[in-house]
Amino acid sequence: MAHWLMKTEPDECGIDDFAKAPDTPITWDGVRNYQARNFIKEMAVGDEVFIYHSSCKHIGIAGVVKVVKAAYPDPVQFKPQSAYYDEKSSVEKPRWQSVDLSFVRKLPRLIPLDELKALSGLEDLALVKRGSRLSVMPVSNEQWQIILEQVS
DNA sequence: GCCAACGTTGGC
DNA sequence: GCCAACGTTGGC
């Protein structure tokens, strides 16, 4: 099983949106970056994902969700009324991918970004690298464990 | 295929 | 709200 981290603005879709309807998967749409898209394609059912809250008051890792449906064409790329509409994409040749995610748990406390930056063993995590804007990234087993140990 | 201009991300 | 860093676009 692989591990991942996905950034989100909690005002739009945070861990609490998963928690309030734990049996309802949420479609992760709107990723419009090729490197992130490629990671989405690699995700498999059962993979666990850290949910990271960005651009908000409390920045950091807030919880865990899991992949319940592997990559398929992002539905909003075909909807002209969507902010994520892509006129250069087509049903025949879709450009962007989504996965469906379900709630697993909130962490006992949020792990703030500056704490993650200070941990040894996370130097290679794209999240803590200066200037990284990648919104979907792999997390190694070692990195996953190091992060979870902070709240266990 | 280079690279300047532009738009976006995201911490502060 | 600022702005640095990054990704994308488009002229040449």
TrEMBL record:
SUPFAM superfamilies xref list: PUA domain-like
Pfam (any one): EVE
InterPro entries referenced in this protein's UniProt entry, alphabetically: 5hmC_binding, EVE_domain, PUA-like_sf, THYN1-like_EVE
Domain EVE: 2-149
Coiled-coil blocks: none
Record's protein name: EVE domain-containing protein
Lineage: Bacteria, Pseudomonadati, Pseudomonadota, Gammaproteobacteria, Pseudomonadales
